[in-house]
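pasting for the record
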Amino acid sequence: MENHAPEILSNGVNHTSKMETRARIQKTVGILLVSIAFAAMLWQLVAVYASGMRHVTHGLLLIAGICVPLALGTYLYTRALTTREERRRAVRFSFFALFVFYAAVLLGALIISRVDYQTFAQTRAAYWEHFELMTNFRPLETVRLYINAIKYDYIGMEIPLSNLVGNTMLFMPMAVFLPCLFRPMQRLWLFALTMFLLLVAVEALQLLLACGSCDIDDVLLNLAGTLIVFGILKLPFVRRLLERLYLMPERVSPAPEAVTPPALTPPNATA
């Protein structure tokens, strides 16, 4: 009878070697793609801080474009990892980096790139001179004006639609980042309060630095957009998908209560 053990052992070694080679290639390509995504983030941040963001949809498309190499690179890199915890850490590192990039883009587009540093005093004086035109503290006043503009078409469709839809979409990613990265933010009241305070702070900075209109309707539209996405994330199948992708923290099951055995009463002694 022929002894096939050496051949089987050789095939097993070859298969293991191929798997290791494939894992190394996947990890290398994954690191390369993630590095490209990080380089694109840095380049786009410089562009946004230098010249601002032309349009809200431009910013959202920018983030989506960076997500492609980042997501693909992270996927390939995690395929080469062996344990679930290693894959979770890699995914959440990339996700947190994307959150930092998004927050930095918002800061640059809404505040820093809009400040006129050379003629700040004159710009601020002109801003306060036309205070009523640059501010709105009556809820839904601007929304009503844009709806009328769409209805009667007296300034075209692009400006009112871009402002209504753009302001609704601008902070939507926050409804994904905050609950996924910070477990307490999965509570509706805490998330809504945090977003409200953040949005009010943005409008207040634009007012103080004279770098944009201070409008209560911006806060309402931004907040409405985030709450819509927050509600979608509460759907069971969406949450399960995010958990499978290692984006949403897994729910912590309550520890079972310890059952105390009943005390044993010794039988009555009989004389």
